[in-house]
Write a structure and sequence with these properties.
6 strands, 289 residues, 2 domains, 12% strand, 434 Repressor (Amino-terminal Domain), Endonuclease, Chain A, alpha/beta, elongated
Length: 289
């Protein structure tokens, strides 16, 4: 696990602005660190959004940088306060790894979420039964109470779609997701029906890449792309692996994954044809119940 948790969007935005103010004032990182009683690495962590900034620290930096814009000062103090605010998932912090709490923070602030998944239905679209079976198989050492708590977290994540301003969500699935039986035919039939029920372009879109497509841009594996409305916020690509997760923020990396996602949308069936294929797979499972 990283020694410093990945920043929330608010902390990254605050850190970027503090760096801009420091550089504009000609103050070195060493001088800034001395003013707040820290070292250069602390300033670096704060400006990278990997460490919070207290109200006293930010006020001291305002004075050092010669900041006099009251509206800007109020906005940054507010960002500092919100950056320390705990998410709804804090109640589950005893069972959630840091890397997953990072995912939840990224996800909760995103305006656009683009997902490619070649193996399983993404957590944001899972039924409770499908989620239970998936988690039980992944977390083999977890108790039943622990599995229940993790399922509750997964269901809680889906509340972002009930917000006043939900993110635009686009999910591209490989046809293999429809055919891989998780939890038995009854669970699969209900899960596939949910994919059809939630599909509501352009707010929430589910599209499929059929087996007949052959090669496509997602054959290297699953990824999620999180995009934010404020240009100060860095877009993020999330890649999961067996024992951790990787987050990419560099422009070149994000652009490559955005291009890959665009190619996947081109290769995918249109929404209506995707729904037809999902419904056919659901009927096939229902025949076996």
């Amino acid at each position: 696990m990283p020694s410093h948790p990945r920043p929330t969007v608010r902390r990254r935005r605050l850190g970027s602005e503090l760096r801009r103010l420091r550089e504009a004032s000609g103050v070195s990182a060493e001088a800034a660190a001395e003013r707040i009683g820290g070292d250069k690495s602390k300033i670096s962590r704060q400006e990278n959004g990997r460490q919070g900034v207290s109200k006293l620290e930010i006020e001291a930096l305002f004075t050092l940088y010669g900041v006099e814009d009251k509206r800007l000062m109020t906005a940054l103090v507010t960002l500092a306060r919100e950056g320390r605010r705990k998410g709804w998932w804090a109640q589950y912090s005893d069972i959630l790894e840091d890397r997953f709490q990072e995912r939840l923070a990224i996800e909760s602030d995103a305006a656009h979420i683009h997902v490619f998944q070649p193996h399983l239905v993404p957590g944001l679209l899972q039924t409770e039964e499908y989620a239970t079976e998936s988690i039980r198989n992944v977390e083999k050492s977890e108790t039943e109470d622990g599995v229940h708590s993790l399922v509750s977290v997964r269901m809680g994540r889906q509340e972002i779609f009930a917000r006043e301003n939900p993110p635009q969500y686009v999910c591209i699935l490989d046809e293999a997701v429809l055919r891989r039986e998780v939890g038995g035919p009854e669970v699969m039939a209900a899960q596939l029906q949910k994919l059809v029920d939630v599909d509501n372009p352009p707010k929430l879109t589910v599209q499929l890449i059929p087996f007949g497509q052959g090669w496509h841009a997602g054959l290297d594996g699953a990824f999620s792309l999180y995009k934010y409305p404020d240009p100060m916020d860095l877009d993020v690509v999330n890649l999961d692996y067996l024992d951790g997760a990787l987050y990419l923020e560099e422009n070149g990396s994000v652009e490559r994954y955005q291009l890959a996602f665009d190619e996947l949308r081109t290769a995918a069936l249109p929404s209506r044809q995707s729904r037809d294929l999902i419904l056919q797979a659901a009927r096939d499972f229902k025949k076996r119940t």
